[in-house]
Amino acid sequence: MCNPGRGCKPDGVTCVHLLRACAHLGALDFGERVHRYIDENGYGNAINLRNSLIAMYSKCGNLDKAFQIFQQMTERNVVTWSAMISGMAMNGNGEDAIEAFKEMQRMGVPPDEQTFTGVLSACRHGRLVDEGLRLLEHMEMEFGLQPNVYHYGCVVDVLGRAGLLDQAYKLINSMRVEPDATIWRTLLGACRIHEDFALGERIIGHLIELKAQEAGDYVLLLNIYASIGNWNKVADVRKLMKEKGIQTTPGCSTIELDHKIHELVVDDDSHPRKKEIYETLREIEQQLKIAGYVAEISSELHDMDSKNKGDALCYHSEKLAIALGVLSTPPGAAIRVANNVRICIDCHNFAKLLSSVYSRKVIIRDRNRFHHFEQGHCSCNDYW
DNA sequence: CTAGGGTTAG
Q: Which segments constitute the DYW domain (predicted)?
């Protein structure tokens, strides 16, 4: 960690940067080394470093450790509270996040815009409709803070998922800020869940006006048509994407083993241990099938026959990373994987079952949030 | 030079 040969010793500022990098990568081991370095060098009393540690541990999925640091702090400012609230939200402890939000006010620390980002995220992840609406109102009336498009987006998401599509649409139109493409996409996602094609197509109109060239818009459009089984329209959209040269991001997972980050992609055939990985994966699948695992085919958007779907789903990068984790760590050790896209329902089932059959905690950070799998259950509140 | 947030979809 230190470079004595050049007489250049990392200081507190260096550590702040390092912790941010660890948080971004989900590199818990390295983050822990930075933590030890901070303590050994007496940097640990600086409030910005304690706050950075809370964020790092939260973003690496170790909420207990983040909370431990939080509890040991004698001085807590708005950043401390916001970091803790966001950490609870992203790790699936929505109720705790709201409790913490109330507690900070009892302690006389006024929330700011970023605190509301955290607590409204908690409402979104926890599906807390009334709480979300109430907070959005209090934000303006009680604290004089102008909600931004993300704050509104959380409440639109919560309303939409609850099936209150009209109310969500009205909220977007009543905003004092301009709706962006993302907030329309949020509502479009809800239209897909509740199969509201009329509103869905109206929203696509708004999206095309704003920035129609984004891959995500077309993917959502695909989802709507796929969920009603209109494969002709799906094919049309795919053709359009091809013509415009629009590509979707390939799935990619990372796992940290012996202080090294291993990166795996969908259908990876370039990893030096690919033979072992695929062997382990097949062995795991056999074990899981005995326990009742059935490949979930509905998460594929292609109109293939079931057999092909079953095969295609075997090689998602998170499964490869989990297999590498199983074969590289001692029995019972936790497996931590970071994913660049959202986990699919099949890999979610796979991890859930693996956590019970192999008696391992599996912690997956996806594009959205953390999934803590333990004894056949997941901490997440989503519909799977 | 430094601390807290981030949506939909694949």
A: 292-384
Residues 150-189 of A with CB under 7 A from strand B: 150-151, 153, 157, 182-183, 185-186, 189
Q: pLDDT tens digits, residue range A182-209?
A: 899 899 889 888 888 788 888 888 887 7
Q: What is the mean pLDDT of each run of 10 residues along chain A (384 residues)?
A: 64 93 90 95 92 95 95 95 95 92 95 95 92 94 93 95 94 92 89 84 82 69 74 80 76 88 86 92 92 70 43 73 95 92 86 94 87 89 60
Report how many domains make up chain A: 2
Residue range of the domain that includes A11: 1-75
Domain final residue, candidates A19, A47, A75: A75
**Half-sphere exposure of residue A317, counting CA atoms within 13 Å on the CB side?**
25
Within a domain: residue A275?
yes
Query: How do strand A260-265 and strand A335-339 relate by DSSP bridges?
Result: unpaired
Query: Phi and psi dihedrals of A330, rounded to 5?
Result: -65, 155
Note the pLDDT of residue A7. 66
Q: Which of A28, A44, A75 is the last residue of a domain?
A: A75
Give the closest residue to A254 by CA, choosing from A28, A79, A57.
Answer: A28
Which two tokens mark A384? 């799977």
CA A33 to C1' B8 (Å) is 36
Does A241 map to a domain?
no
